[in-house]
Amino acid sequence: MPRLDAIDLRILAALQADGRMSTLDVAERVGLSPTPCSRRIRRLEDEGVIEGYAARVSPRALGFSICVMVSVRLARQGPDGHDQFLSAVERLPEVSECLLVTGSIDYLLRIWVRDIEALRAFITEQLQSIPSVAETSTMVILGDGKGQASGLRGGEVRIGRP
Fold first, then answer.
1. pLDDT tens by residue, 26-58
2. Which of 28, 68, 83, 146 has the fewest CB atoms below 10 angstroms from its CB?
3. What domains does the chain contain, in order, with CATH numbers?
4. Sequence-distant (≥ 6) Cβ neighbours of residue 126 within 8 angstroms
C-alpha cells in the first residue's frame, strides 16, 4: 500500500475536485513548486493511487431521469451462476454499478433509464431473463441524502462501450 503524506492527500483532493486542473494550479493549491508536484502526481499514477481521469456525464442531460437500485438474488450460487450473471450485466448499458454484496441478496445494481416504461422493459425483458437470476427487487432513488433530487448530481451513465 502506497504511503501518502498530507501533501499527497491535498493533491488527490484537488484532482478529485477538478481532474482537468493543470499541474501548475495543483502545485499552487497544495503549496509546492510545479516540478515536485508533477513528480508526486506521476508517482501517484504509477503506484495506482490515481487510476485515471474521466469526465462525469450528467444522466439528466442525456435524458435519463430515473435512477434505481435493483437487488438481485441468484438461483445458482456457484461460480457458473456468478459468471453467467456478470457476463450478461456487462452487456447492459443501463447498469452503471454492479456490486457484489453480503446478506440475503447477491448483487446490488445502479440502473439509469429514461422513464418508467424503459425501467419495466429493462427489468422484465433483460434483467429477469438472465437464467441465473432468481429474484429482483427495485428501489427508486428519490434523493442522494444531501438534499438533492435523483439524477441532479452524481451518478454515472455508460455511453457506448469502454
1. 999 999 999 999 999 999 999 999 999 988 888
2. 146
3. 6-46 (1.10.10.10), 60-140 (3.30.70.920)
4. 92, 94
